[in-house]
Design brief:
564 residues, mainly beta, Immunoglobulin-like, 6-stranded antiparallel β-sheet, 5-stranded mixed β-sheet, 5 helices, 43% strand
């Protein structure tokens, strides 16, 4: 029996895209009524759609139109790329915004290509805001939806999380608003199933009657949103228009930053920061390295690997970081199904032969004939980062009897920021070896580690508007537990260690004062709305939520906002 390492070649294609996010479509999409347009749904194997949030979950009457939605998991700096000196400055860190457009949008670059081709409204596009320069690329092409010719699907809401949780944030159209007593410029919050309230009224964001929020992101940076093409504020500020992004009552990203015209309509939005820079968008000919039995053609267990240093994430999140999944590059699957396992390993030494600890794994079937050209999400239960290095393994198991014309191609990038590795025990590579060392130079396998805050208590804050109200929420308390909100005018940093909190050290700088206390609801969500005096100048305010549990006291992520 002869084992041999072979390299298979696939054609050139653009890699990018993902599936796994939750999305909604408009009522004119051809998937209706099988896909209820009032639901936020996720698709799985065979494009079967499953509702995650429904109108009943949001406490809205039947027939309501949710115009924008966020699960509160968006992570972005409060100042955007349109703001001089916006705070990136961390090596290998960038902000990734995913968005969709309506059927009438023409777009620039990649969006224009799609709108003049098989349509753009059923696609998801992405912008990497690295230095403030934008320009969109296609993230997914009508995945489980309908492209042109008409009628085409229209994605009108997006969010990161694919399982039901609260709070969630949303806005409604004018007709629904008239029914429930709010405006289309107001941001609402559902803190428990069937219960909604006003989170931030539109006037606190500087919006005017007639403005309509139709894309929304809520998270650590506050609230980011886009307005539709009829909104007076969008028409009055053409650098943003209806194709750019506002945040917290100010300007965040121009329409040009987003690869759109000012008159285009950004129809859905979600923002993530930071994302790992090993993600790449330009694919070279597909990487199809396999260990095979040359007599039978059967493939043996084959793995490709990437190594990630965790210090950048720990520094970004103050030591509070978890891995919630990995996106891996899969370019092409030919003829036969492949079960692909993605495993996450921890190590404290960068050497490939050093001991590793298995932390998580997720297996999915990649179907025969699948031309992915995409980053496929393999979700994990939250994994705390507790090692100096993470190794990500994308593993194809043994396939006895599978002919060698059944092939799997990894997506690879045209440059290598860090080495990629290969292992296959049957081909005598027990430990990962650098692909360069076995004859595959600059073959950089595409992988993205999805990292987010590891805060058991999450703090979300809306805009602080002088003469208006300040809205904030804490998520993760016990039912009906008292949540304390503290503030500082000295910013975020090493704060006091409080004896009554068991010595817990805060992340807002002294002097620190108690802002207010609020009992959580049955879902563990405490929602606070406080008046902001009209005499308060435009000063930065740092806030944090805490739970007083003695030695087990808990603190949230700190949030820095500025009074508008």
């Amino acid at each position: 029996m002869i084992q041999k390492l072979i390299c298979l070649v696939a054609g050139m294609m653009l890699a990018g895209g993902a599936f796994g996010q939750t999305q909604g479509i408009d009522p004119l999409s051809p998937e209706v009524p099988a896909f209820d347009p009032s639901d936020l749904s996720i698709h799985g194997t065979g494009c079967m759609w499953t509702a995650v949030w429904t109108l009943a979950d949001l406490g809205l009457p039947p027939g309501s139109n949710v115009d924008a939605f966020s699960d509160g998991a968006d992570v972005f700096p409060a100042a955007g790329p349109i703001t001089p000196g916006w705070p990136i400055g961390v090596t290998q860190r960038f902000v990734l915004a995913l968005f969709s457009v309506d059927r009438q949008s023409e777009g620039l670059g990649a969006v224009a290509t799609q709108s003049s081709g098989n349509g753009a409204s059923s696609d998801i596009f992405a912008v990497e805001f690295v230095t403030g320069a934008g320009g969109a690329f296609q993230w997914s092409d009508a995945k489980c939806l309908t492209p042109n010719p008409p009628p085409q699907s229209d994605i009108d809401s997006l969010c990161w999380i694919s399982k039901k949780k609260f709070p969630v944030f949303f806005s409604v159209d004018a007709a629904t608003g008239a029914t429930i007593g709010v405006g289309p410029d107001d941001i609402l919050v559902a803190t428990a199933p069937g219960t909604w309230g006003l989170f931030i009224p539109g006037f606190m964001l500087g919006l005017v009657p007639g403005d309509n929020i139709d894309a929304l992101a809520v998270g650590s940076g506050g609230v980011a949103y886009s307005l539709d093409e009829t909104s007076p504020t969008a028409l009055a500020i053409p650098i943003i228009g209806s194709g750019g992004i506002f945040a917290n009552g100010g300007l965040w990203a121009s329409s040009l930053d987003c690869g759109l015209k000012a008159t285009d309509d950004m129809n859905a939005l979600m923002i993530g920061d930071p994302w790992e820079s090993h993600y790449g968008t330009q694919a070279i000919p597909g990487l199809g390295i396999m260990c095979v039995n040359t007599q039978t053609g059967s493939t043996y267990e084959t793995s490709v690997w990437r190594r990630f240093e965790t210090a950048q994430w720990i520094n970004s999140f103050g030591g509070q970081a978890i891995v919630s999944g990995v996106r891996v590059g899969a370019e092409l699957v030919e003829l036969y199904d492949f079960d692909v396992e993605v495993r996450l390993w921890g190590a404290d030494d960068p050497n490939p032969s050093s001991p590793r600890t298995l932390l998580a794994g997720n297996t999915q079937t990649y179907s025969a004939g699948m031309s992915l050209g995409s980053m496929v999400m393999h979700p994990f239960d939250d994994v705390p980062i507790q090692h100096d290095y993470l190794w990500v393994e994308m593993r194809i198991p043994d396939s006895p009897g599978l002919p060698n014309d059944g092939r799997f191609f990894w997506a690879a990038t045209d440059s290598e920021s860090e080495p990629s590795f290969f292992s296959s025990p049957a081909c005598s590579y027990q430990d990962p070896v650098d692909l360069d060392s076995i004859g595959f130079p600059q073959s950089s396998v595409m992988m993205t580690v999805v990292v987010r805050n590891q805060w058991d208590l999450q703090h979300i804050q809306g805009a602080l508007v002088a003469g208006g109200q300040g809205s904030m929420a804490a998520v993760g308390a016990d039912p009906f537990e008292l949540v304390h909100f503290v503030y500082s005018l000295s910013g975020i940093g090493a704060g006091p260690c409080v004896p009554i909190l068991g010595g817990l050290c805060l992340d807002v700088v002294n002097p620190v004062q108690l802002l207010t206390s609020q009992s959580a609801n049955a879902e563990g969500v405490a929602l606070v709305q406080l008046p902001v005096s009209s005499n308060v100048p435009p000063i930065p305010v740092a806030t944090q939520a805490v739970l007083a549990r003695g030695a087990a006291s808990l603190k949230s992520n700190p949030v820095l906002g500025t009074v508008q």
